[in-house]
Specification:
globular; mainly alpha; three-stranded antiparallel β-sheet
Length: 317
């Protein structure tokens, strides 16, 4: 039987955000927080533009983190495991439920250009569980203006988020979603990277002692907090990328040992998504063969099983 090609699974060592660019505590100076955000984003920029073969898994793992934070902001209880189940265990295009729909919005964030129009905005608004409002109609125009003539990425993102809440105070989820699109647009990234939403409850958006009311877009000191949050988010994304790189390299090393016809299909899916159901199948790989393949990859410690269940299992890097 044919063996999967390993050439397509080549890995690279992703750049790390320097330790000095990662905030270790409160930073009050506006110039310093802007410098930290710029340095961290510059490191992440190298990773985004290198487009490693495992970038799909990396982006979707970040989308999952963001969706879990978004569910918390929406007053929902789904964590990452529940959201993963809701998305990957549904049948076909079945409704994944409210939490799964929020995850769909952040998964779509990673798959689209860094631009906004009314139709795409309406789709996102619905997935986030929000009602369409007249104030949303002028968001694409405001976005384009900020992208073309606005300030640097963190401040343009803060301005976009403030614009959303001025017109629709209950649409904070949409504001955070658009913040990441604005960052990508200002940095000329081909696709956004989910960074900001996962930081919404971080100490950066609270008082110096890490307690008290959470800062919201448009409030005093929000821009400073957003710069700190972006620096922290970039550092966390870079660490996750390093982990993805190591795991993809391990997958590459065991690929020649796989004899199942269609193993390359499963490997490609593992590199492109956060998780793959144990029932995965393709034209070249039956469900039965896929189950045996995932069991073997788990034994080789090339993939992890996320659910801990004997059935309805989910595998990923």
């Amino acid at each position: 039987m044919s063996r999967p090609s390993t050439a397509s699974v080549a890995t690279l060592q992703p750049p790390a955000v320097p330790a000095w660019a990662t905030p270790r505590g409160p930073v009050d100076d506006a110039a310093e927080v802007a410098f930290l955000a710029g340095a961290a984003l510059a490191s992440l920029d190298q990773l985004v533009r290198s487009a490693p073969v495992w970038a799909g898994c990396w982006r979707q793992r970040l989308a999952l983190r963001s969706a879990a934070s978004a569910c918390r902001l929406a007053g929902r209880g789904e964590g990452e495991a529940a959201l993963r189940d809701a998305w990957h265990l549904r049948k076909g295009n079945d409704d994944p439920g409210p939490g799964g729909s929020i995850l769909a919005a952040f998964r779509q964030l990673t798959a689209r250009p860094a631009a906004i129009d009314v139709d795409s905005l309406a789709w996102v608004v619905e997935r986030l569980g929000l009602r369409w409002q007249d104030a949303f109609v002028n968001i694409p125009e405001a976005f384009d203006k900020l992208q073309r003539t606005g300030p640097a990425a963190p401040f343009a993102a803060a301005a976009m988020m403030r614009h959303v809440l001025v017109g629709a105070p209950m649409a904070e989820l949409l504001a955070w979603w658009l913040g990441d699109v604005m960052v990508a647009a200002k940095l000329h990234w081909p696709r956004p990277v989910p960074l900001l939403m996962a930081q919404a409850f971080s100490p950066a958006f609270r008082a110096a002692d890490g307690r008290g009311k959470r800062l919201k877009p448009g409030e005093e000191n929000f821009e400073r907090a957003l710069c700190l949050a972006l620096a922290k988010a970039a550092a966390e994304a870079a660490r996750l990328a390093a982990d993805m790189s190591r795991r993809a390299e391990r997958l590459q090393s065991v690929a020649p040992k796989l004899r199942a016809k269609g193993a390359a299909d499963a490997i490609a899916r593992l590199l492109d998504d956060d998780a793959v159901p144990g029932t995965f199948s393709s034209r070249n790989l039956s469900r039965f063969a896929a189950r045996r393949l995932f069991e073997r990859l788990t034994a080789f410690e090339a993939v992890r099983e996320f659910s801990g269940r004997p059935t309805f299992r989910l595998y990923g890097l």
